[in-house]
Amino acid sequence: MHASSLLIQRRAHTASQSSLVRWLLIGGALLFLGLFLVVPLVAVFTFALQKGVGEYLSALATPEALSAIQLTLTAAVVAVPLNLVFGLAAAWLIARFRFPGRDLLVTLIDLPFSVSPVIAGLIFVLLFGRQGWFGPWLAEHDLHIIFAVPGIVLATLFITFPFVAREVLPVMQAQGSDEEEAALTLGASGWTTFLRVTLPKVKWGVIYGVILCNARAMGEFGAVSVVSGHIRGVTTTLPLHAEILYNEYDFVGAFAAASLLTVLALVTLALKKYVEWKAEAS
Prior knowledge:
By secondary structure, this protein is mainly α. The chain is built from 15 helices and no strands. It has helices at about 1-50, 55-60, 65-95, 100-110, 110-115, 115-130, 135-140, 150-160, 160-175, 180-185, 190-200, 205-220, 220-230, 240-245, 250-280. Helix 3 runs parallel beside helix 9 (about 160-175), helix 3 packs antiparallel against helix 12 (about 205-220) and helix 3 (about 65-95) crosses helix 14 (about 240-245). It is globular, with a radius of gyration of 25 Å. The mean pLDDT is about 85.
């Protein structure tokens, strides 16, 4: 009886310690989220609305703000579809075939993750700037890439191109190619097999990659900042517009622009969780 009583006491003590550790971890996580997530979110909207809704809407309706929003959407509209096509093609090629240079292709896909966006922007300046490799030829033909919209699109495209490929590739590798081989054996063409068999199997990975790609395209700052030239109303995206207004002490305008990016981040997070839930349920 005495040994049994000691065992019960030890178990109760262990359970008490586990409960204490669990609550400490939960409290630490909530404190961290509060300080580094909730407080910044509240601060953004507080500063954006500090002079009222009218001033907030007026700050978003200025020609410079509307131009920044339009340019941000333009860069995303061009970059996301192109990255979708590249990501699907690259993931399918890597997952289904063995060829010389395969490992190099995988490494190149990961390159934007390891290179600073600022360095990426400088690379484009060295290539297409007035003193760059192709600068004289571009000037001769009156083509403008750096400090113009094409440079912003190129920078956005480079920074975002790994997202779709990196989300789709593991899904393709995990699911294998048995169903595709069966479809080909039954006489389906390669294009039909891709549309009817491959694409439906990886649709959640595709959607997830597109969501992340779009969020990064709209929020990119470093590479775009280098190639844009900060020409107000012409080559300033929404993040650059927020920076310019903040440096000019126009806090309402700066945080109004930042609030749009914050809403984008929240919507992206909600879509991400929804896609994860649907993928697990399917």
